[in-house]
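We close this part of the discussion by returning to an individual protein. The encoding preserves chain order, so positions in sequence and tokens coincide. The sequence in question and its structure tokens are set out directly beneath this paragraph:

===
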Amino acid sequence: MALSQHEMFEKLLDQLDLAADVRQDPSLTSGTVQNVTIHEQSRRYDFTLGFDAILPFQTFNAIATKLPLVFQQIAATDLSVVVTQPTITDELLAQYWQYVVTHAEIGTGIVRELCEKQVPTLENDRAVIKTENEQIRQYLIQQGLGKLEETYRQVGFSGLRMQAEVDEEQAAQSMAAFQAQRAEETAKMAKAAAEVVKQQAAKQKQVQTDGPVQMGRQMKMTDAPQQMVTITQEERSVTVEGYVFDVEVRELRSKRQLLIFKVTDYSSSFIAKKFSNGPEDEAMFARIQKGQWLRVRGSV
């Protein structure tokens, strides 16, 4: 059963369980899971999401914040965004700036301090950062601009070029305004992150209380799951894992039950089926719910 890239994106949004106002953002209607690379040894999922336009920062940040939290019991995650029609504005540059500076892995204190005191502005289709003198401008070019450009590209600002210019007056004027904006955004982001952590902790506590869902023969730790997209023919025994997005339990004439659920690892998807072999299996069937992450082994 093949899901389209947009359908896989919708299942990912279901798993992230975003707030209603974020989920209803019209900018998400064009969303797709363009690619997911699963690194089995390092246990990392690299997601590439596609959109028609650059997302409002609050929407992007909600996804970027929730993704590692939802997957923390499964694997580490990395997120990049590809936009087909990136319209870059001063407002979007400013909204994403603090995130870009934080994630650009700038090692030098001078460059980081300079970036934290201002926001870039668009001039002739380039994002311009002002510096107080030529020496700092050269240092910024060598130590920071490339990393900042790359981080902007990773969040959807494809084709953006950055430039450093000396302008003492403008740099001084922007400092006070940016610091006020930064304080407000930091407070909002901290509040949102705290709420996400609280919700995730509550869900994890519930999972620990109920215990694991396990049926059939116990799988070995050496049974590494295959990426679903790589399974192209019948196999006697294969292990996969993924997000459950549909569950049905049917009562048969023989009084046995048939469990049918659909699962995706965002590279492809499968339908899994299992017949019950007694009350214990039926009790376990009742615990399998939409939104869980399950590992499954069987024939294809």
